[in-house]
User: Which sequence fits this backbone?
């Protein structure tokens, strides 16, 4: 169909030795809208609801969340692409309790069929309630990506 609307279902499990929790498990679902969608540029907006739980902290419980975000990509040349995305998650019981994850990168296709790429990116994570840890974390990544 030629609709700009779609749905999403997303889940993560993350371990980070530098956070107050041992493991964070999340799941969310919602609707997305392609604001821009052509051969070179794509901008997708999304909003949904979900739940999150952090294990390894006192009084761990499932937290209802609202999520919104965007995903952007722009093809610079035939083999080069810029990407950026941000997702923000708010505790539905207390909007001052939120977290965000942003990822921006450059991708270069390295094979003729377009399945293998090199990706350089930076990932920023923010948590408004980090416990006794720092609220902001920035990591860098160099990856080989295989699209299938």
Assistant:
């Amino acid at each position: 169909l030629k609709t700009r609307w779609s749905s999403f279902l997303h889940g993560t499990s993350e371990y980070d030795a530098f956070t107050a929790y041992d493991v964070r498990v999340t799941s969310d679902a919602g609707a997305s809208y392609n604001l821009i969608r052509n051969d070179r540029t794509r901008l997708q907006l999304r909003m949904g609801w979900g739940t999150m739980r952090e294990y390894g902290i006192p009084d761990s419980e499932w937290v209802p969340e609202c999520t919104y975000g965007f995903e952007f990509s722009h093809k610079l040349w035939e083999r080069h692409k810029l990407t950026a995305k941000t997702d923000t998650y708010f505790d539905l019981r207390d909007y001052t309790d939120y977290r965000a994850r942003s990822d921006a990168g450059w991708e270069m296709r390295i094979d003729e069929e377009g399945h293998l790429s090199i990706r350089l990116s930076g990932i920023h994570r923010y948590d408004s309630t980090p416990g006794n840890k720092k609220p902001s974390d920035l990591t860098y990544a160099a990856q080989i990506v295989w699209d299938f």
